[in-house]
Hints:
Elements: H1 5-15, H2 19-26, H3 30-38, H4 46-56, H5 60-64
Amino acid sequence: MKINKRNLGLAIAKSCMTTLEIQKAGKLSSATIARAKNDPEYVPELLTIGKLARVLGVSVEYLTEGEQQ
């Protein structure tokens, strides 16, 4: 399951959080966040998507909605 890059970008913008804040809150590496934001071939684990959704205050469905296959 891929992350919808547009929705992720919108969620980050709405949260007003920096990458470092997201990294600390979600206990994610900076490389994971960078790949989620930028790498079109990146397929994260469901746990990673869940962590991002929780930290950003959105649903997993929102982050994967309209995903590009």
